[in-house]
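Task: complex structure prediction.
Instruction: return structure tokens for all chains below.
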Amino acid sequence: MAPKTLRETVLKAAVDYIAENGPDGLSFRQVALAAGVSHQAPYHHFSDRKGIFEAIAIEGHEIFTATMLGSIDAHPEDPATALLDAYVEFAVNHRGHFRVMFRPDLCSATDNPELLRVSGRSFEVLVEQVHEILGPKASVADIRARATAMWSLAHGLAVLLIDGPLEHEIGPIKSRRALVRAVAEQSGMAAKKRR
Amino acid sequence: MAPKTLRETVLKAAVDYIAENGPDGLSFRQVALAAGVSHQAPYHHFSDRKGIFEAIAIEGHEIFTATMLGSIDAHPEDPATALLDAYVEFAVNHRGHFRVMFRPDLCSATDNPELLRVSGRSFEVLVEQVHEILGPKASVADIRARATAMWSLAHGLAVLLIDGPLEHEIGPIKSRRALVRAVAEQSGMAAKKRR
DNA sequence: GAGCGCTCTTGACACCGTCAAGTCCGGGGA
DNA sequence: TCCCCGGACTTGACGGTGTCAAGAGCGCTC
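Output:
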């Protein structure tokens, strides 16, 4: 599925580069030249450098939300682990997007309504699951704390995995999914209905 | 305690800048000019741009380790929460260091022995506490998973707090320490000896 | 007092993001 | 049919940045 428009071409090339080398060394000109157009052509599709990162973040959040919903749907008996697993899998399989999405210096959601919307939706999915897990009698404070805890655990694990020192410190990871399951178990947040 | 040497001056200016604006926009020349020296003077103290970030990371890891040890010492009854609290407090109070330490694209520990040493030491402190928490009969796999879980939770919470969308999504945070305690509670990792 | 190494300066280079203007071209109204 | 008009892209320029190379000032030592 080769990208057709220049916009898609640039976006894909940028995501691929970021997945390999991180977002900071990304040269806008290089991407344009590699696509066979002049160094200024992409600026007709994105207002500025930030514009590209915001477009990547929006695309990323859409895939991200879909990934989480799919995983929860596939494992309704343990939504917390499903969420953690989806978070990590997304980060690993879409590093290019992930590395941009949570970097407000690259793409600030505050002044981009579309990005604000999709990132809010991602968070909604999480909170809905926490509601589901804690039940209807849970206090607002508990829901808030549990959502923060689950988000932190997932985000930290994902970050430490894709470009953090985790593998370097704890040794090679044979099965990522097994690690995710063990982490969910060791934190108290896996489904309580243990077999 | 004003920095004396040019090396210290540059380091402090860089850390302050990063704490405010993030590491990416940091201009080496600007820092030098602001310090009243030529644009090339700092390069005599650091091999290149990466060299500054590595120096910041080393300094950061030393403060970081000391912060964790101090917190554990002050709250021996609940080392997990103490660790989480120290992690977050360090990230908030030393953003400039924190934002650099866990960004391998800025400072790769693999080719800097000193950085390798201090970052390894940070991780040791964590693993020692996990040993303490799980007791001597814990399996290696459990220790590994618990350490990963605690690190992920702490790292994720810290990242989401200092420049992530956490406060934007869950609303204003009145007491950071209360949030940290609630998160430790909601994850199953606080000390089991509940009051 | 001559040599030397450390600290810093000066100048140049390629590259980057961005502003401004010009070129090409297809499509719709006269 | 002609015109013109607006979007897609090119070309050129500017200031800023990291880095390489060479040189200047200066305290220390032999």
